[in-house]
Amino acid sequence: MKRSVCVLLAVLGFAVGCDYRAPLSADAEIPIDKAVLGLWESVPSLEAPSRLLVIKDQENQYLIHAQSGTRDQYFRAYPIKLGGIVCLQVQAVDLAKGKIMLNENQFQVVAYTVANNELEIKTLNPAQVDQTLPDSAALRRAFLDNKDSKDLFTDPHLFLRVPVKKGMGQSQTVPGLKPIMKPPAK
């Protein structure tokens, strides 16, 4: 049984949780976790998006499409490391007027586990790291102060991997397609 556990910071804004005004880190230097790639469907009893499509945008960045009914949302995500914890920074993407624009103040924080074709996502607890903190430095201090708390992440959401039909394959990248998102500035 392959088990992959990482803490994801600055979360999937659709999944529940509190929006943060700033990212924990703008450094996107850690390779993505390929176990997360693919199509995921929420367990019906949970209030979460119906589907998540997680694709590789770059070696160190995902593009996530979340669909719930007729509502679509897009996110840029990249792994980071803070206080010895490997994390994923997720930022909302605004597709207004046909342009891809990052929402500069819509970040969240999650932890995830992938095992046995299940993806569990937990959100950062705002009682541990206040969502009204003004900047990345304040968020990092609060996160590091609480990183050992068993209540740092709460509100689990479970997704099941949607099987790939035989013969369709599961491409990780599209040859010749340039990444749609630029890596964050350092």
Question: What this model shows, in words?
Answer:
This protein is mainly β. The protein has one domain (4-161). The protein is built from one helix and ten strands; from the N terminus they run βββββββββαβ. It has a ten-stranded antiparallel β-sheet, with no helix packed on it. A hairpin with a 2-residue loop joins β3 and β4.
Give the total of domains: 1
Order of helices and strands: EEEEEEEEEHE
The strand count comes to 10
Structural class: mainly beta
How would you sum up the major sheet? 10 strands, antiparallel
Approximate shape? globular
Distance between the termini: 37 Å
Mean pLDDT: 76
Write the layout of secondary structure elements.
Layout lengths: L3 E5 L29 E5 L8 E8 L2 E8 L2 E12 L2 E10 L6 E7 L2 E6 L2 E7 L11 H11 L6 E9 L25
Antiparallel strand pairs: 1-8, 2-3, 2-10, 3-4, 4-5, 5-6, 6-7, 8-9, 9-10
